[in-house]
Automatic annotation (TrEMBL):
Organism (species): Gymnopilus dilepis
Protein name as catalogued: MYND-type domain-containing protein
Segments forming domain MYND-type: 18-60
TM region positions: 177-198
Organism taxonomic ancestry: Eukaryota, Fungi, Dikarya, Basidiomycota, Agaricomycotina
Any Pfam family matching the protein: zf-MYND
Domain of life of the native organism: Eukaryota
GO molecular function: zinc ion binding
Keyword entries, A-Z: Membrane, Metal-binding, Transmembrane, Transmembrane helix, Zinc, Zinc-finger
Amino acid sequence: MDPNPFFNGPAVHSHQNCSYCHKFQRCEFEKLRACAACGNAVYCSKECQRSHWPQHKIDCNTAKAQDKHIKEHTGIEHGYTDLLRWIEYYSTPMKNCMIAALNLPNYPHQERDSVLTIQITHKRDATLPVEHRFIIDSIARNNRNDNGHNSKHIIQMLDSEDIKKAVEFGKLEMGKFYYGTAMIMIFAFFSETPYIVIPIKKVFAIQKPTAQMKVTQTPWWIPLRNIMENGKKMRFCCGKLEGGSCCCGGWVHSEDVKKGNVFA
């Protein structure tokens, strides 16, 4: 069984792949290169990057506009790009923390009414690696009937057309194994005056076997805070082979993991 500090089952995860041809990085033993403008899309070749531009240009231009807005009002360089890269870095532990927060064996389909909310603040220090550029202010599970300054926004997100589309996509993607779709909201604080807070929504589908897994630590948010405060990455492996290589590149099967070290 994969090491997982959140629940007693394999870690929910995805593999980085080319934004155009969807070739996995591990297939070709070649590092994917990020878009220099926004850092959000990654490509295995210049040809794929050029081919993907008609689809990517909206997101890319949005990132550049947000970076410019944040810099003009705060002096922070590439603040929005920092946020996108920070989210990508911690994508796997955030998803697994959400599974633990939902506690689905005891509260079936709580994903329909709950959101994992993470509030962070930019440190304004460009010398730090991206995984250390934000302070972790709070990690919480919010329900649609909670009272709070984000409650109205959360209800709107839970009932949005985007979520409905994500649910349908999850059913199509997972077929009979589909259980539900979970949502994570990241609120990134950049400035008090003017008030600049950027919300980012992430959704992912949950498989039925994952919904049966039991939480291994309480409070459920402690592993995520430890990971983020120490700039760690979760070790995980689905056991699948691509191009003759295990999906984790062998790092999950090292002596460190056998001794209980589940982070990189």
